[in-house]
Amino acid sequence: xxxxRNDLLISAPGLLLLVFGFLIPVAGILVLGVRDADGAWTSAxxxxxxxxxxxxxxxxxxxxxxxxxxxxxxxxGVPLAYIMARGGPRLRLWLIVCITLxxxxxxxxxxxxxxxxxxxxxxxxxALNMLGLANRNYTLMHTETAIVAGMVQVLFxxxxxxxxxxxxxxxxxxxxxxxxxGCSLVQSLRLVVLPLxxxxxxAGSLLVFTLSAxxxxxxxxxxxxxxxxxxxxxxxxxTKTLDWQFAAAQSIILLxxxxxxxxxxxxxxxxxxx
Amino acid sequence: xxxxxxxxxxTALLAATSSAFAQGTTLVVNSWGGAYxxxxxxxxxxxxxxxxxxxxxxxxxxxxxxxxxxxxxxxxPQYDVVHFSGGQEVIAAREGLLAPIxxxxxxxxxDLYPFATExxxxxxxxxxxxxxxxxxxxxxxxxxxxxxxxxxxxTAYGEHLVLTDLSNSFGLLGFLMMxxxxxxxxxxxxxxxxxxxxxxxxSVIINSSPEVQQNFAQNDAWLAPFAQDYAYVIRKSGQPVxxxxxKEGVPAVYFTANLVxxxxxxxxAKKLIDFELSPEVQAAFARxxxxxxxxxxxxxxxxxxxxxxxxxxxxxLVRFDPVAIDKVRNGLIEDWKKLIAK
Lengths: 274, 342
Known about the structure:
The complex is a heterodimer of chains A (274) and B (342).
Chain A: H1 2-33, H2 44-51, H3 53-86, H4 89-104, H5 107-118, H6 123-130, H7 144-168, H8 172-181, H9 185-214, H10 217-223, H11 230-239, H12 244-273
Helix pairs in contact in A: 1-12, 2-12, 3-4, 3-7, 3-9, 4-7, 5-7, 5-10, 7-9, 7-10, 8-9, 9-12, 11-12
Chain B: H1 2-21, E1 26-31, H2 34-52, E2 55-60, H3 63-72, E3 81-84, H4 88-94, H5 114-117, E4 127-138, E5 161-164, H6 169-181, H7 190-199, E6 203-206, H8 209-218, E7 223-227, H9 228-236, E8 241-244, E9 252-259, H10 266-276, H11 279-289, E10 292-293, H12 302-307, H13 322-340
Parallel strand pairs in B: 1-2, 5-6
Antiparallel strand pairs in B: 3-9, 4-7, 4-8, 4-9, 4-10
């Protein structure tokens, strides 16, 4: 009991900041979603979201795009993290710089860069035109492809750095032992490195998924108003139609959706860490 | 030595804090970014700061977002003067967020057109600028110049249309006009939604004013329903864009300057609003961005007067009742979002 009291005392400043600066304000907003204009408890707003195919479509688009973004980040991030971990210190340093340098630029500026690259006459449509795959007026702006491209660039460093930390701690002698036992390179990666890297992959995926589900700047700018995602819908409901109760209800649904992912993740990592 | 250092530090600290106190008052206002905000600062805020020895902090925020913030800050407002372009002053006045002004309290109040002071009885601020919503077109690329709202549905304009989202004031008023042209009213927006739905595959939908300029410059846009002020800006930037008032009617956009309730410095804020209503400021706005003045004493050179809605012509503009719009706004925006979602 003494241990617990000491732990609590030491973490008190952080906990108090968390409670007063985060939990209480967020709880206040979420409570708005289950109350009507007079303050009585109601599930009308949640029901409105869940029974309207338009909003369910928005939710589905958000999940679909977030899953796609996470999958692309995993597939591209695992090999890169492995190379960074096993390469020499100089290679690792340069690759870390390359990965984290975009993080230093504002996300809005990076998104504008994508608008130039993907818009009419931009780099990508021009290249497609040269290859004969698209006509002169082709544009990738305001498509789901543009949203995925922009979001992958923004969230990729989070995935790579999460996996890098875990892979670096895998003892390289385990791989050497596997090779000595007769595994090819690919087999040793598949049978030894990948299972041990799972906690990092899971942590990175969770980070990327939750961030991409709650982003609204990049999908708003690259997807336009015809491809709304849940976060942009919340923003528009709160600021354009001033329907705070419904915006809070949408936030509750987003929060529950993301929390539903946390539970399997907590269970998975608890097993590997014993 | 130590004493001298300590004394010097105390003096410096005192000087720093006392200069912060002697700073003078700061007024917080909003403006809408882009070319308009630049002009707003140049013609209104900077001269006012110099003459009255006050600091003005300008927050870039569209009208709808400004109303959302005022609502959130009701217990402790952070703005002194807010500008609205989409009729939000009606809602803000009704919710008690604005302090009413009487026309007699403004030195320019008696010189304003009646429509500019009509809302003040309801607690809204005066109208300080007016712009018209019509059709912008690229005169070099269009097969023939448009004259009517129904020309938007003419397939001769191909896939080169630009429509504005209803969250933007210009988009909302343009839509209500198109709705009216096809037989709808503010309460019945189905005709408008159906007909605009036919245009979706041929158009790009934008959310903000600078995007119109970008679409004409880079995206091969030929025709866009938008406002007269940005038509002038786009033409000045080198694009061959002309503005035409469509024959079925020209909706008016009223820019209001409103006093926020429960703030100190109400007299100073009223002076700022009064300054925006003065003939010289209004003439400058008309010259720079073709805004129509609301002060009857404004003098405009003849070439500018021909390009703004001047004098009695303002009465011929279509004015959608902001109270009626406010009742249907939320439902309409939701219907619109469902219409345009892919």
